[in-house]
């Protein structure tokens, strides 16, 4: 199952880009690149039974991580798992209901939180480390593997809401009414997430991404306290052990705050969502590598509209350190031919 027959003589393009090299044809990968748009994924997924069974089966998780690399030879793989594995590992009940997305038993008090523990998470995390180890045996040295976690604000929001939300109502109300309780949740997540990212890098992940999908819609003081400070603390702890493993931060929907986020979190690269304007993204490139921002719906639509936007993105961002990606995860009904066309356009 080894994809790469020989060891590369030069550093993989993806890692070079994260460390500050610009490429005319930038390295590329797609968020959620292992997923339901691939027939081979749907096959393994049905074999596994449930999504969580797939996440917690190292052999099958490694297999689906490798699928998009075999098919498209992307410049990076990302370990197949989910950001909600962290609260689940801490002891919170989690289910993925078919067609509905995740459901957790909400944490709304310190008493609820006291039932969770970072110590307890270690045995679940080790399943993911084993999946990373198996994936790397399949990838060889040619294609680097990305490890990841959700950022404390996004994961805490799911923990408090119990499911996805359009206005973060329960999470914000808890944060405003009982700041100590909310802070205790964030602190536990900082500790667990830093440990988890360090464990993934120990297992061989060569870059790490922190997904803050719900980073939009926070007032500036709350953005500081819930997004910047916890992320900065995780980056600091991971860097103390793995100073050379680049970290990509993805504060989705927060482009007006990019400069502050970059300056204060210490991330090496900035993941940019679809709504972030190209000049705002480009303005960050003197400080960090940037990644993103093609609309997943343009990839679904394909054709000239997609080509025009991809070319505009390349023109604006490829002269400086850049990793091609979507602005959010690939959609399950995306045609394979559109992905193939995208790859031809980006690779030139
Ligand atoms: C918010 C969030 C989640 N998970 C994640 C985020 C942050 C990024 C984002 O905003 O999308 C991150 C995530 N989820 C998944 C990965 C794997 C790595 C990758 O390919 O990028 C990663 C990095 C697999 C997954 N996570 C999930 C799937 C679909 C599961 C299936 O096969 O049915 C996959 C491939 C399930 C999931 N997981 C989550 C939701 C809301 C859902 C249901 C929605 C959906 O079904 O698409 C929580």
UniProtKB/TrEMBL annotation:
Keywords: Cytoplasm, Decarboxylase, Lyase, Porphyrin biosynthesis. InterPro entries: UROD/MetE-like_sf (IPR038071), Uroporphyrinogen_deCO2ase_HemE (IPR006361), Uroporphyrinogen_deCOase (IPR000257). GO terms for biological process: protoporphyrinogen IX biosynthetic process from glutamate. Residues 27-36, 146-162 form the Uroporphyrinogen decarboxylase (URO-D) domain. Pathway: Porphyrin-containing compound metabolism; protoporphyrin-IX biosynthesis; coproporphyrinogen-III from 5-aminolevulinate: step 4/4. The record marks 82 as: Transition state stabilizer. GO terms for molecular function: uroporphyrinogen decarboxylase activity. GO terms for cellular component: cytosol. The keyword Transit peptide does not apply. Substrate binds at residues 32-36, 82, 158, 213, 328. Its EC number is 4.1.1.37. Pfam families: URO-D. Homodimer. Belongs to the uroporphyrinogen decarboxylase family. Catalyzes the decarboxylation of four acetate groups of uroporphyrinogen-III to yield coproporphyrinogen-III. This is Uroporphyrinogen decarboxylase. The gene is hemE.
């Amino acid at each position: 199952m080894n994809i790469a027959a020989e060891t590369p003589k030069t550093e993989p393009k993806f890692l070079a880009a994260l460390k500050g090299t610009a490429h005319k044809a930038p390295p590329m990968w797609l968020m959620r690149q292992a997923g339901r748009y691939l027939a081979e994924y749907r096959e393994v997924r049905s074999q596994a039974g449930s999504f969580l069974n797939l996440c917690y089966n190292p052999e099958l998780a490694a297999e689906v991580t490798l699928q998009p690399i075999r098919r498209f030879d992307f410049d990076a793989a990302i370990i197949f798992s989910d950001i909600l594995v962290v609260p689940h590992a801490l002891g919170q009940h989690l289910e993925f209901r078919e067609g509905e997305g995740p459901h957790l038993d909400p944490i709304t008090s310190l008493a609820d939180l006291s039932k969770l523990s970072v110590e307890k998470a270690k045995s679940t995390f080790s399943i993911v480390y084993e999946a990373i180890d198996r994936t790397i045996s399949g990838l060889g040295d040619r294609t680097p593997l990305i490890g990841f976690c959700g950022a404390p604000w996004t994961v805490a929001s799911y923990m408090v809401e119990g499911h996805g939300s359009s206005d973060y109502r329960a999470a914000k109300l808890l944060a405003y009414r009982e700041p100590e309780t909310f802070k205790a949740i964030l602190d536990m997540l900082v500790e667990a997430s830093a440990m988890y990212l360090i464990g993934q890098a120990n297992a061989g992940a060569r870059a790490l991404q922190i997904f803050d999908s719900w980073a939009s819609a926070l007032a500036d003081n709350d953005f500081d306290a819930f997004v910047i400070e916890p992320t900065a603390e995780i980056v600091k702890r991971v860097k103390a052990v793995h100073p050379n493993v680049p970290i990509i931060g993805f504060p989705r929907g927060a482009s007006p705050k990019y400069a502050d986020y970059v300056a204060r979190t210490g991330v090496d690269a900035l993941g940019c969502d679809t709504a972030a304007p190209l000049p705002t993204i480009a303005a960050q490139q003197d400080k960090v590598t940037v990644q993103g921002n093609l609309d997943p719906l343009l990839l679904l639509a394909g054709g000239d509209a997609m080509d025009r936007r991809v070319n505009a993105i390349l023109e604006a961002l490829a002269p400086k350190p850049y990793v091609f990606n979507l602005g959010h995860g690939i959609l399950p009904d995306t045609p394979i031919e559109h992905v193939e066309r995208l790859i031809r356009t980006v690779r030139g």
